């Protein structure tokens, strides 16, 4: 039994952490769950994640929830994978900025675009400001490349890259050339390919058993 266990629905937000684990190169177990069977609302799982959602990660006796937090935790817990920027390195500021920008700005902007309000919310009331600003900041971030911090691939690329790949798939992010090029680079990473293949296998198995 591995020391790392990911509670996972294939595919879902926990797929971000699945990719991160593949990049990490450490052994891990999957606790495969299902939205349709209400696995996420059982008393046992709510003890792990009271929000009743995935991802959740168990590392020994430590439980971490929220995808970006899990990726940050794993990168720091296993520094030998070189997926983090250590404390004291001035690049840690931009690195953390991108890790937080994913769930607080990118995902929120995509969700609001997908499910518009009846009335327009004041820009100052939204943590991400407005959709166009988020897209422009993202464009600048990925344009320098090949990764957000230049030559080093980090957990921030897992978080932001997943958001961009998912967002373009559902038309919440425009298919700008820089987004397409960045997503293509990430999709070619061996760990990303392994994670995608695992999700496809798990999804097919779940559909066959339904």
Q: How would you describe what is shown here?
A:
The chain has helices spanning 14-24, 43-48, 67-77, 92-114, 131-143, 155-169, 177-187, 190-209, and strands at residues 4-8, 29-32, 56-59, 62-65. With 210 residues, it is α+β, with helices and mostly antiparallel strands. It has 2 domains: 4-82, Glutaredoxin, CATH 3.40.30.10; 92-190, Glutathione S-transferase Yfyf (Class Pi), Chain A, domain 2, CATH 1.20.1050.10. Helix 1 runs antiparallel to helix 6.
The percent range for helix content is 40-55%
Alpha-carbon Rg, integer: 17 Å
- Describe the strand arrangement of the main beta sheet, using strand numbers: 2-1-3-4
The CATH architecture category of the largest domain equals Up-down Bundle
Low-confidence parts: none
Strand elements, count: 4
> Can you summarize the main beta sheet?
4 strands, mixed
Strand and helix map with partners:
Blueprint: E1 4-8, H1 14-24, E2 29-32, H2 43-48, E3 56-59, E4 62-65, H3 67-77, H4 92-114, H5 131-143, H6 155-169, H7 177-187, H8 190-209
Parallel strand pairs: 1-2
Antiparallel strand pairs: 1-3, 3-4
Helix pairs in contact: 1-3, 1-6, 1-8, 3-4, 3-6, 4-5, 4-6, 6-7
Task: Name some characteristics of this structure.
single chain; Glutathione S-transferase Yfyf (Class Pi), Chain A, domain 2; Glutaredoxin; four-stranded mixed β-sheet; 210 residues; 2 domains; alpha+beta; 8 helices
Short précis:
The protein is 52% helix and 8% strand. With 210 residues, the protein is α+β, with helices and mostly antiparallel strands.
